[in-house]
């Protein structure tokens, strides 16, 4: 790259998962650019951002993938893309991260089925592409939304069904700045994390609390396993 000269020893893919509106995109914005926005737009499709950091004198590029909570909807977006490009023939999908570059976002909106089973197969294809090669995951819930915590076992199941066996997982209770609206106790989450062998932290993307710590912990652990 022109003038870059940046030497990268490792690239680690980390995925963000969890219900919609728990703060995944803001956690990423805080980590990648040290930014935060109160009126963040819902993520459409899949995107990733990178940040390079030094771990044990090595340069580690973290490639953090972010998605909308409704992965079904993403599958549908890809289906529409597929149909727009290839017509209605019903070929198999070839979905990988390069799809990120093709501007499928213009196909947002209601997903009509292009052919029977399209949505289901789009969902599966996108889900596996999202998790493929991921070495770490931040499993995010909102401490003020009980439901987002109650859904964590499902997210965990999907993650374990698709990702690398050694994936490093951090359970993240976000929005710790909203203590007066808390609906999930720290103890409950800690207990769940211990039972499931997950790291656990409460974060605030708004106040920049523990965001750095969460990523550092996951990346350092990945580094220990893969270096
Ligand atoms: P996503 O759907 O999981 O990506 O959630 P977003 O990152 O889009 O955030 C959803 C909403 O929660 C937005 O209005 C954010 O500004 C807000 N939000 C995200 N993180 C925090 C946080 O740490 N504290 C507070 N108070 N609000 C947050
Ligand atoms: Mg988002």
UniProtKB/TrEMBL annotation:
InterPro entries noted in UniProt: P-loop_NTPase (IPR027417), Rab_GTPases_membrane_traffic (IPR050209), Small_GTP-bd (IPR005225), Small_GTPase (IPR001806)
Family: Belongs to the small GTPase superfamily. Rab family.
SMART domains cross-referenced by the UniProt entry: RAB, RAS, RHO
GO MF annotation, one: GTPase activity
Name of the molecule in the record: Uncharacterized protein
CDD domains in the record: Rab11_like (cd01868)
PROSITE patterns: RAB (PS51419), RAS (PS51421), RHO (PS51420)
Pfam family, one: Ras
Species assigned in the record: Eleusine coracana subsp. coracana
């Amino acid at each position: 790259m022109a003038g870059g000269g940046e030497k990268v020893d490792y690239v680690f893919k980390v995925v963000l998962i969890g219900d919609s509106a728990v703060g995944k995109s803001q956690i990423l914005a805080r980590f990648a650019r040290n930014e935060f926005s109160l009126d963040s737009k819902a993520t459409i499709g899949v995107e990733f951002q990178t940040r390079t950091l030094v771990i044990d004198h090595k340069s580690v590029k973290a490639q953090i993938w972010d998605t909308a909570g409704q992965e079904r909807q993403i599958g549908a977006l890809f289906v529409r893309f597929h149909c727009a490009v290839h017509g209605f023939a019903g070929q198999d999908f070839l979905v990988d991260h390069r799809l990120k570059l093709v501007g499928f976002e213009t196909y947002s909106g209601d997903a009509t089925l292009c052919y029977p089973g399209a949505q289901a197969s789009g969902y599966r294809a996108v889900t596996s592409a999202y998790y493929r090669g991921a070495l770490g995951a931040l499993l995010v819930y909102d401490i003020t939304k009980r439901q987002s915590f109650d859904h964590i076992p499902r997210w965990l199941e999907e993650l374990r069904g698709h990702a690398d066996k050694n994936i490093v997982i951090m359970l993240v209770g976000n929005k710790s700045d909203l203590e007066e609206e808390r609906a999930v106790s720290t103890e409950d989450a800690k207990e769940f994390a211990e039972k499931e062998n997950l790291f656990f932290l409460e974060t605030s993307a708004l106040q920049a609390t523990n965001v750095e710590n969460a990523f550092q912990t996951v990346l350092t652990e990945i580094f220990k396993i893969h270096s």
